[in-house]
Each structure stands twice: as structure tokens, then as C-alpha cells.
Amino acid sequence: MSGLNKISELNGLRGFAILIVLVYHFVNISVQLNGPIINAVNNFFLMGWVGVDIFFALSGFLITSILLKTKSSETYFKSFYIKRLLRIFPLYYLYLAFMFFFFLPHFAPHLNPAEQLNIKTTENSQLYFWLYLSNIKQFFQNIFFGSALGHLWSLSIEEQFYLIWPLIIYYCDYNQLKRILLAVFVGSIILRAFFYYHNVPGLSIYSFTFTRLDALGYGAYISVSLQKPIRIKPESVKLILKVLLILTALLFIFFGPWPNSTPVMLIIGFSLIGLTNAFLILTLQSHQPSKIKLFFNNNLLKFLGKYSYALYLFNPLVRQICFKFFLSPFMVWGSYFVWYFLFIMLCLLISIVVSIISWHAYEKWFMKIKSRYEEQQLEQLPINADGNLISNSF
Prior knowledge:
This protein has helices at about 10-25, 35-45, 50-70, 75-105, 115-125, 125-130, 135-140, 155-170, 175-195, 200-205, 210-225, 235-255, 265-285, 290-295, 300-305, 310-325, 335-380.
């Protein structure tokens, strides 16, 4: 796309995020497979939920960048909402229709009573999924939906963000936006602490909109900051990123891999991870070459980034089918590790194949319509001699 500059490393970052989320879902299965190797692999890959926070930061950054660059367009609101609708709605609602009208009714009889009850609870809350409010339902009822639909809480938060954030961008200036985002950072920490010490379950805090807005806000803050020249040197940004990565690693070492395991992780840990993601995005914005830019410019990661939306939607369904119908745990040389590895690889392969089919058979046709609105909007905006929108970077 000519008008909105694309940074390939950010697509690689998206690919990295979806990869660790996939593995996180595939190692998190409903049977306990003990063993030193499996336990070590589990503890490492169960940190993969951080991929969702990377998605949040990327969404905050990219959406804010688009909104700021198109703020002067006469079709600012219309173009933004139509483009989001064309990108998000078709596959999301196709997935919901398949799950509620076909898969769950036919899948439930093969499950045990506890799993059937979980499906019944999910089906009774169907309206909340269609309205992108499943995470709100989860919070107020202290439940977490399964049945290959529980992961949609994050898409609900993003859609709620897309609904409100364009209005704030349109009516606020640079300084007001920064103050609002700073308030979001502080407010999210206070709200998480308040809920935790009032005995709200950790998973409810983890998936509630107003306790996770800072994850989106960190990416948005970077985008807003880049509207003016950045005073901090790229070398300093890289150094800060290294320190943040070390602190994040220590966080997991001392407090474990689960997002809802301790008050430190819930209250402070989310903010540390969000700040790390922000500086990672800021580093990838730099024009200077670096090892981290080279890593995220990897073709495999960029490939996964292209199909990340469908991969995120379909992977829990793939896991369910593989676990129930294709394989049962078996031991090789006295260990379940071989089965474990094969199960993860099978789920990854099927998820990728399904996502490629989804893109070429379904999604790309809506993307073609979306590109028309982008072209119409760009015609109204100031561009430089290279055909790119005028913007600041460091």
C-alpha cells in the first residue's frame, strides 16, 4: 500500500506473537503428562500468552498511526469503520456461525458431562459473542468460556477499542492524547489491584476490558509520540529494551508462567510486559539496522504474520479436534515427550493449512474491497514525492 508506510519487521513481530500463542494453546491440554522434559517445555511455552499482549500493543500502535495520519480526511470515521468491519467481521462471524450452529451441537455428544456443561454455558451466552461482549460476560459471572470460544475475549477488547478510540483521536490534540494514555496506564494498575484485593478471580481480571486497556495503550503511546521528533537516541532505546527484557524474564522466573498466578504478575507484570512491547515496537521503528530487526524480518515469521488472524481464530478448534479424534497420548521410550511433540507439530500444521485456505478462499475478497476505501482516503491526504504519507520517525 503506497500511502501508509509498512514496516516488515512489525509483520514479523505479529508472526512471532501468533507462533507463541499457538504453542501456548497446544501445550495447554486437558491431560497431565508428567516428566522432567515435558514439565520444562510446559513451563517455558506456557509463557506464550504474552503473544496476546504483543497483539494488543501492535493494534494500539497501528490503529493509532492510521487514525492520526487520516485525521484530516473527510471520510475519517466512515473509512476507518468500514475497513475494520471488512477485515474483522467476515471471518469472526463465519467462525461463530460454524461453532454455534454446527460444531458444538455435533461435538457435544462425544464429550464427558463436565465438558458438555461447559458447552451449554457457552451456548447460553451466545449473544455476547455476537456483540463482542464475551469478556464482559466472563467478568461479571466469574467464568471463562472454553469450547474453542474462550480465546475470543481478546478480540472483544480490540473491537471495543476500535469503537471508542477513533472518537478520542479525532477530538483530542497531541498533549491531550498523551495525558489520556498516561491516565490509562495508572488507572489500569489501580483497577487490577482493586479487583484483586476484592477477590475477583485472576482470569476475570486478565480478560476484562478496563484492566487490559494499558496493553493497547502502550502501543498507542508510541504512535502518538512519533508524531513529533523523538529526543531519545536509538542506542538508548535498545538499551532500555534489553533491561526491560531482562526484567520480564526475571518476572517469569520468580513468579511463574501463568498470567493470573500472583498479584505481582496481575498488577505490575502486565504493565512491565506492555512497556517492553512498546519499546520493542519503538526499536523496530528505527532506521538503524540491528540484530532484533533482522530477527523479526525473518520470512517464516512474516509468513505467519500474514495469516495471524485466521490462525488465532481457528487454532483452539484445531486443538480440540486433534486431541479428541486424531491422537491419544502414548509413551515412547518410557516418555510422553514424542507424542507431545508430534501433537504440537500436527496442530501447527493443520492450523496453518486451514488459515491459508481461509485467506485465499474467503478473507482476501473482503480485503480487496477494503483496499478500495484505503485508496479513496489516501487521495485526500498529503503525501511526499515518494508517495508516502508525511509522518515523523526517529
